[in-house]
Amino acid sequence: MSKRFNKYLTITLTVLLCFAFSSKLYSKYTEVYPVPETSNTASDSKIIEPIKTHNEGNEGHDPSVQNDEEKSQYQQVTTKAKDFTKDVFINNRLKSTRSQQSVLIVSSLANGNSFGSGRSFEDFVNLIRSLKYDRREVNLAFFCGTQDLYESVITETQKMFDQQSESEFGRVTLIRAPFLDSPFKASEHSPKVQRKRRRLIARARNFILFSALENEPYTLFLDADVEKFDNPEMLEHFISSGKDIIVPRVQRGKLMDYDKNSWRGERKTPSPQELEIMDRNEWSKFKFIPKDVPGKMYHLGDHLKQLKSPQSDPDLARPDYTVELDSVGGAVLFMKSLIFKQGVIFPPYYIIGTTWQREEGYDGIETEGICYAAKILGYKCWAMPNMVAQHVN
């Protein structure tokens, strides 16, 4: 009986030793050759296409064997997510940038007509080139509101990198997000549609900004229908001033102060009856329209009246003269990027007058809510009314 027991014990111990040895051997093997983990990510959630490299005059050349002299001029990286498509063009000819001076120039393009009659995306890029600033320190970002425009801008961007004779624009980011398509025309300013129209504009501005902003310390928003800078050194003045948020004066033909969203003063508030409608969220019945309080509002056109006064201060005529504002417009809007990164956005709702019960307030949507939020964080809004940007007429 004891012999049989000893036999079984010997067999059992042998099996256990073999199992322990094989487990240890497998562990060592996986340390050297890791076993891939399976992913539960949905296959259609995000697809990053292979990087496309472009090298002018080297068709058929294998990019994997490029030396330093043969590097492609740019890379194009395409990301296809569930709700949007993103194309990023990276300029390989720019080896370094002074990151503390770089600027991200951002524009939201509704459609092919956004640039104004007879103008194109190429004209808009040439406007950006007209700024007196080192273009090696400039990155671009464009939100495209239609698929046709998106494809056209991709083609133009490829052409721009292929044909440029000097190094400019370190990175260009393009975004196409169909869920943000707008049914409204750019010229549509009816009070009936302003709430919905400006809500979409704010969402598009935020989407392209946070899709493109990296380490640039400065951001400049430009509307596509700005056609000329009377002061090409405008951006340099904005940066050297040290101010947080700045707008110039926007002129459209004979209208010397076109962007009325840049102001300082008092605005009208809803009546008690209108506030009750807001509390019930009966927005179809809410007819209140934000307006200035007469005699208690300052617009940049008032600066021109001050200049004409015989008793005006000579400092009023200085190119970099600044005046503090409570609200800014968005045709040309300069901001320190740090402000965005702390949570200040373009409010996609009327931020003034909100409560826990109300879906939104009665004033301060999109650019007009920027200063309200930034002020809470200790930042201020300013205008340089002697700096002029021309809007298409």
UniProtKB/TrEMBL annotation:
Keywords: Signal. One of its GO terms (cellular component) is mannan polymerase complex. Residues 53-77 are annotated as: Disordered. Gene3D superfamilies: Spore Coat Polysaccharide Biosynthesis Protein SpsA, Chain A (3.90.550.10). One of its GO terms (biological process) is cell wall mannoprotein biosynthetic process. Residues 53-72 have a biased composition (Basic and acidic residues). It comes from the Eukaryota. GO terms for molecular function: alpha-1,6-mannosyltransferase activity. Residues 1-27 form the signal peptide. Pfam families: Anp1 (PF03452). Belongs to the ANP1/MMN9/VAN1 family. This is Mannan polymerase II complex subunit.
